[in-house]
Amino acid sequence: MSEYAIELEQIKMVYQDAKKNERTVLDNIALCIRKGEFISLLGPSGCGKTTLLRIIADLQKPTAGRVRVAGLEAKQARLSHKYGMVFQTPALLEWRTVLENIQLPLEMQKVPKAERRRRALEQLEIVDLRGYENSYPRELSGGMQQRVGIARALVTEPEILLMDEPFSALDEFTKERLHGDLLRIWRNTGKTIVFVTHNISEAVFLSDRVCVLSANPARLDAVVDIQLPRPREDAVLKTEEYFKTVSYIRDIFEEKYYENI
Ligand SMILES: Nc1ncnc2c1ncn2[C@@H]1O[C@H](COP(=O)(O)OP(=O)(O)O)[C@@H](O)[C@H]1O
Ligand SMILES: [Mg+2]
User: Fold this and answer.
1) Tens of pLDDT along 27-62?
2) What spacing in Å lies between the alpha carbon of 24 and ligand 2's midpoint?
3) 60 lines ligand 1 (CB under 6 A)
4) Residue 192: exposed, middle, or buried by beta-carbon count in 10 A (0-12, 13-18, 19+)?
């Protein structure tokens, strides 16, 4: 068995535009993500973060390179539900209750009804939404809807959680609350989390390691170990070490920026 949750070897992605011009979006990305690790993919909008996450999830094929997820080929990992996915907008079905939304992936797996309900309720508890099982998405705040999205991703009990800018549409207060919730879930479940963001502070606060991606094409410029203590409480946000780490990563981006103009 591999000690890694995800292994990326020399991933390259080249898109063709309407005029058949080729554009390299990801260039030789190589990265091994450890089991149980909280890792962020950080880079500016349009640099290729979603593309990379979709390649890990086997939702698209890289032009070149090799992907292994939970020790399996990416397709095998997808088919055996090794990961759950959370998106920027939770895309809940408006006509289904919270509990019915969370159960959706289990219906696709043909899990019996009583077990579906039991497992969905368990996840509802984990994301702290007990009492909202019969509410409809429109009755919930943005932060609560995103927690339903997380519960839906966790309900199949995947080893890995892939999250694509899950909190970027939320206000600062809600975002901070969800950071705390996510870290608690991570600590209690031992999942591997791959968290895509364009927000430096968010990446630093949450992660064990931050992968700094440059744009055009995205290369892995640096992988920064975040030494801040665990469990991470909000108090960390006011420490000098936190500021130093954020500035250090900011400097990496600025250096790149000036190199490119
Ligand atoms: N299917 C596609 N065909 C052509 N270009 C694409 C496609 N998907 C994404 N791109 C381009 O690749 C670049 C990276 O996109 P994306 O991975 O969504 O970036 P990010 O998530 O970092 O904002 C963007 O310039 C985008 O326009
Ligand atoms: Mg994106």
Assistant:
1) 999 999 999 999 999 999 999 999 999 999 999 999
2) 16
3) no
4) buried
